[in-house]
Give the backbone structure.
Amino acid sequence: MAKKKSEKSAKDKTGWLRLILELIVVFIGVSAGFLFDNFREERSNRKMEDKYLESFYNNVVADSVEIQSMILGNQNNIDISGRSVASMQAGTITNDSALVVLSVMATYNSLNLENATYESVVNSGNLGLIRDFEISEQIVYYYRSHEDMRYVEQVYNDYISNYILPYVSKKLDFISGQFVEDFTVNDIEFRNITSGYYVISRQKMELVHTLDSLNSDLKNSLADLIN
């Protein structure tokens, strides 16, 4: 009788051991599956992060070329309008210089900045894939400055549309390229729109230089991270 109980006890222990081993095997298998899935997801995230960083870098490099071109063009406009304002103050402005400054002021110029990557990252909620917090902050601040730039450019272009072009259409014969008979360099409207243009162009230039500095910092940071 004791022998049968001993055999039954041994069988029970064997059964429990087998069950425990099976549970351990299942646990290890499930854990390995989770680890593999996490590894695969992490690798996919890192590939996506690398792709975004490279795309950001390419966008910022393209922006840099555009910004430098704007700085040169806008500085020329500031120089011409500034000389005209100084000539008005000195009473030495001529019709020829007035014609030059009006032709400059009647020209729109806007930055064509690249923001496709930023829009894609933000809209997809993937900004968190960029692990470097400082880089992430730089990116957000830089593209918010894009928005500030667009606002200033809208004000600048509205000024041209609402004040300069209407004046030019009244005072300039487009066919001959000459002023109409009643134009005078002492015309108060001409003096006001020119001085106003000079001020708004300088304000625009200040923001362009700020954007240029942010662009340079972000471009260097991205280059260091990519390399």
Remarks:
- The longest strand covers residues 172-173.
